[in-house]
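It would be a great kindness if you could assist me with a short task in structural biology. A protein sequence and the structure tokens that stand for its backbone fold form the material at issue. I should value your view on which stretches of the chain appear to form regular backbone elements. The record follows directly beneath this note.
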Amino acid sequence: MINQGTGEFQNTYTILGEIGKGGGGTVLKAYHKRLQKEVVLKKIHSSLKNRNARAETDILKNLKHAYLPQVLDFFEEDGNIYTVMDYIQGKSLKECLDEGRAFTQEEIIRWFKQLCEALQLLHEQKPPIIHGDVKPANIMLTPDGNICLIDFNISGIFEGEDAVVSGYTPGYASPEQIRCYQQAVELQQNRSHVAEVRHESEKTEVLTESTEVLQGEDTEILSEENGEEKKTEITGILSEKMDERSDLYSLGATVYHLLTGAKYQEQAKDITDADIRNAAPKVSEPLARIIAKCMAHDANGRYQNTAELYQALQNVYKSDRQYQRLLMQQRVIRIALCVAVSGFLGMAFYGRIRLQYEKDARYLELVAAERQSIQTGEEDGLATAYEQAILLYPERAEAYQIRAESYYQAGEYEEAIRFLTELAIPYVEEGPGLANLYLLMGDCYFEMEQYEQAEETLLLAKNYDSTNEAVYRDLAAARARAGKLAEAEKAVAEAETAGLADDGIAYINGEIAYARGDVVEADQCFEKALELADDDYLRMRACLMRVRIRAEGEQTKEGCMERVELLLAADEELPEQYENVILEELAQAYIDLANITGEKEPDLLAVSTLQKIIEKGWGSYLTHQNLVILYQKHQMFAEEQAQLDVMQDLYGEDYRIYKYRSLMEVAIQNEKDNSERSYETFREYYLRAEELYQEQKKENQSDAQMQALAQLYQDMIDGGWL
């Protein structure tokens, strides 16, 4: 039971529970009565009191940064020393990884930059603060989608020849940090002190003078005295030194883990960008190079400070081969434009007006051709029309906007943001056209549920066109989703002043009601917006919100039928450019309906819907996988076999494909009489699935179906079937 003490505890804090224990102390969650908010109390181990606690806390109390917790107080109670800091809402990135969450490259680059900013503030202190334990477990993902770097338990403040070494975390610590630790152990061993050894999670720390070091990820050196952990820091003059570049190594190793799902295991050698891209094929070449440079064994081969690293991240796309190809295309176009302009200048004055008119007409014709190409799915036609259009008017927004819309409508939001940021916005003249590009970018962030970024981008759109009603509408929606209801309502008032029509006002009010949790009012508002709207995009969004409300509520047959009816009406009434997202929602509604009713017909309708998505070129791995599951559910083995063959052609050797082949083969054999059954093909598929599963398995993740297959395989061996 936690001792709540007297005095300071009794008057100020209510202890809510223990968060954890580590080398630096015991971490408690508490409620601060005066501030009326949750805080974190760290009880500093007695052996650290004299040196670290006061000095570190005094420095940290003066640090204020969006991506660091605020240190609020420092006090002594019953002989124990405590630091008090903000309690950070959210989950650690380690928890997210443990749950199997995958992160987009765009998300990771943004967090990479935020961590650079936080570390830069620490490193710029006098003396500099070295965090010393950057890893997913010490990075909180907050509800607004940003990060916070926590846990200064083993941070070090280094000055002159005096080095404090508390320990390191295998998989993230730099080579020099590990060597510092090893030298420090030798230093203490020379003093002939002895420590007890026990195992705990993840960290390897020296907590007292030790004569033995156990190797491995889960090793921690601890001693116990009267039930309390004791820590003796290791100090002295070491030939090996740590500096801010050590944190940059840990930061690179952390980002590697986020991108690949596993720690880097081969730490005896330098990692290369090729190693990173082999582990995570979707990682861009420039990002892989940045991570590899962060993780160089020789600190001189790394970025020398956070400013250098941040600058590299700012330019991460500019060295991408695809970016360079697009950039080269646009440079060629602009050179051709300059030549054309030179020719125009030499023309007679009387012909200029006619030529300008023809140029404008041709530009509008090409923009229309772009839009038509999106609707028909003709990528070559889209690219040709786009290139010819920006040759005519590189400063106008329309051609860029339609090109970006093609990414948006395909659900490729990161690609749309990248295109707008690097290849469109820098060239477009200020005004309503530029505002439309920022509006589209804001909508991309909105769809990615990055509402803070959506708000920031939409404010830029507002700066360039304060009369654009859609900007106010989407700004209010982003603020509502971010939980900023007062600011959202302020945006509603601004929208009304700007002349936003009733359909847009109804939609915003629906978003605000939805954010408040009043789904009945929200549904009524979205229904009104759907009835009033002439804008297809707004109608699509209002329809999807009505569907979302029903999908998130209690699952009933009536609710599923309502979702189906809404989506069928939208598919019939809305242009083809919105069909992809409508069909995906429709397939899920059919599947949910079949699960509730037990009827086969909705599943067959889901099959035809998924097939339509694939035929139109919009299929993803999940689309194909859902088809396989539906075929297997209804023992449509020929169709399932054909679909698995298609998946193997598209996605190569993937354990999940062999997993489904194994399950299918078991189902086929179970339909036969016992005397006719043979599970040899099942054995072949299962063993291949298991081999690939072990290769592709991410750290701390497992597949329940693979575990069930393993048991089934063993049962067949035990039963004499194999």
Observations:
- The first strand starts at residue 13 and ends at 21.
- The CA atoms of residues 607 and 627 lie 6 Å apart.
- DSSP finds 29 helices and 18 strands in the chain.
- Residues 320-466 form a domain with the Serine Threonine Protein Phosphatase 5, Tetratricopeptide repeat fold (CATH 1.25.40.10).
